[in-house]
Amino acid sequence: MTNLDFATIGGLVLGIVLIVSGMLLEGSILIYASLVSALIVVGGTMGGVIIAYSFKQLKNAAAALKIAFSEQQDQPRDIISVLVSFAEKARREGLLALEDEAYQLDDEFLKKGIQLVVDGTDPQLVRNILETELDFLEQRHAINRGVFAKGGELAPAFGMIGTLIGLIGMLSHLDDPDAIGPGMATALITTLYGALLANLVLVPLAQKLKVKSEEEILIREVMIEGILSIQAGENPRIVEEKLKAFLAPKSRTELDEQETEGGAVERNAAT
Predict the structure, then answer these.
(1) 70 has which bridge partners?
(2) Which stretches of the chain drop beneath a pLDDT of 70?
(3) Distance (Å, rounded) from C-alpha 247 to C-alpha 215?
């Protein structure tokens, strides 16, 4: 079951609530409602994004949207623990002993790396294969977040286009004082919609996808280094210390505490 990222959800809800509250303090929220403005901003932004990307890329970006609202399940320290246990087993029983472990892995990237090692692939070739896959992963992620970034770039522009449309409509009815107010309102509301769509939704989502991508890439880099260390037959303790270099100091401390607690449990079970 995927855990929700409450930072994304909470930030979006908080922003909406506070903005709507500010609108209510100025009077009825209905004065900010304009179907014409919504059609111009949303329709124009969607049209521009569709022109900029292929339907396959748009479909992948829509599928990637759920990543922004879900927590990263695999943590670097958890992957380090798995790799260190693999290093211990490989040192005791040999690399071929990892074959059964590889088939039980859910992560396809780590599974592929372990299988390459078990098959006796040259270390440099193993690195090249995994780093090539990592490069293509980064490219796919860049396209996915680029879709939302492009939307964030276009929305304010279409807000300004809507403003021009509203001003043109207003100026064309200067002989009718009753039409000036609605025309000016449409002009300003369209700018408001474009700014809100870009700065509250699209740009933050693009940034969140970038952060999630960096987290996943870090985990993949840890995997690559760990796999190659296992293949080189390095001491499990050295493997652990090498992989800890990828972690922030706080995460290293948490990993050390986790190992200390695990060791205490094992000693208590032995007694």
Answers:
(1) 4
(2) 1-2, 73, 176-182, 251, 254-271
(3) 11
- Side-chain-side CA neighbours of 180 within 13 Å: the count stands at 5
What are the φ/ψ torsions at residue 70 (nearest 5 degrees)? -130, 150
Angle at 14 between CA 11 and CA 15, to 5 degrees: 85
Q: By the 8 A CB rule, do 145 and 68 touch? A: no
With beta carbons less than 8 A apart as the criterion, state whether 138 and 214 touch: no
Q: DSSP assignment of 144-204, as one string? A: HHHHHHHHHHHHHHHHHHHHHHHHHHHHTTTT-HHHHHHHHHHHHHHHHHHHHIIIIIIHH
Cα 219 to Cα 102, 104, 126, 127, distances in angstroms: 17, 19, 17, 15
Closest by alpha carbon to 44, among 256, 194, 180?
194
Q: Where are the domains of the chain?
A: 6-76+124-260
Structural contact between residues 194 and 59, judged by C-beta atoms closer than 8 angstroms: no
pLDDT of residue 75: 78
Q: Are the C-beta atoms of residues 33 and 23 closer than 8 Å to each other?
A: no
Q: Report the predicted TM-score, pTM, of the whole model to 2 decimal places.
A: 0.82
Q: Return d(Cα 166, Cα 145) in angstroms, integer.
A: 32
> Helices marked H in the chain — which ranges?
6-25, 35-52, 55-68, 76-93, 99-103, 108-118, 123-171, 177-196, 203-231, 236-244, 249-270
Exposure b/e, 224-233, CB count within 10 A at least 16 = b: bbbbbbbbee
Q: Which pair of tokens denotes residue 233? A: 């037959």
